[in-house]
Amino acid sequence: MIYLLEDDASIRDFVLYALSGQGMEARGFERPSDFWAAVAEEVPQLVLLDIMLPEEDGVSVLKKLRAAPKTCRLPVIMLTAKGTEYDKVLGLDAGADDYVAKPFGIMELLSRIRALLRRTAEQAPDRYTCGCLTVDSARHSVQVAGQEVSLTQKEFELLCLLLRNSGRVASREALIDEVWGYAFMGESRTVDVHIRTLRQKLGEAGTYIETVRGYGYKIGRES
Questions:
Q1: Of 184, 193, 133, nearest to 160 (Cα)?
Q2: pLDDT (tens digit, 9 = 90+) per residue, 92-149?
Q3: In 3-state terms, what secondary structure has residue 92?
Q4: CATH architecture of the domain with residue range 127-219
Q5: pLDDT, tens digit, for every residue of 170-202?
């Protein structure tokens, strides 16, 4: 089940029709209050979320989804007319998995939905350990030497991705594709900035994240 929170009826009906045509079950909502009522009854597989909404904006909805234990890992694609780089970074750093600016091509949107569903369908361990670092992905908990560490959504996703691929180098492009999930126009500094902040927050465990010059990052040793 896919939920679409979009107050423009023409866009909502068009996207729902396209999803139905691809064999995907979907429900559309005009107002966040209706959306929240549906989430309380059934958590969907994925959410398509507009930003400009009545009652509350989409970023606020996204933050609430990420703060709730049962929806903190729910895949979310932002669908919005706000298409500047700043708006994209704002939405992605708030926890969105992907960002599609209006007007969009329906085939591209369907492709992004399928790609995100594939990524999230892959089973991953709930718990990772590396030296004094312990990460519980199900509880969104990170501890260094028994002390809780607070990370942003993107920092947490980066850390889990590196741990999931322990011992293997992840390129900046791969990190962008897996964590940000949208075409980054060749710019990789955002990854470096997030890694630098992540290392600082992890303290002594920050040294576990190794830089592979000119390529990307890894955590742990090659087997």
A1: 133
A2: 777 888 888 888 889 989 988 988 888 776 555 678 889 999 998 777 889 999 999 9
A3: helix
A4: Orthogonal Bundle (1.10)
A5: 888 878 877 776 544 545 678 899 999 999 999
In order, the DSSP letters of 145-204 are TTEE----HHHHHHHHHHHHTTTS-EEHHHHIIIII-S--TT--HHHHHHHHHHHHHHGG
Q: Cα dihedral angle (127, 67, 210, 118), rounded to 10 degrees?
A: 70
Q: What letter represents residue 126's amino acid?
A: D
Structure tokens at 175: 């990190």
**Distances from the Cα of 8 to the Cαs of 53, 218, 221, in angstroms?**
9, 43, 51
Query: Amino acid letter at 173?
Result: E
- pTM, full prediction: 0.56
Instruction: Tell me the C-alpha distance between 84 and 76, whole Å.
Output: 19
> Any idea what the Cα angle at residue 134 is, between residues 133 and 137, rounded to 5°?
135
Q: In what order do the strands lie in the sheet with 141-144?
A: 127-130, 133-136, 141-144, 147-148
So what's the architecture of 2-121 in CATH? 3-Layer(aba) Sandwich (3.40)
Domain spans of the chain, in order of start: 2-121, 127-219
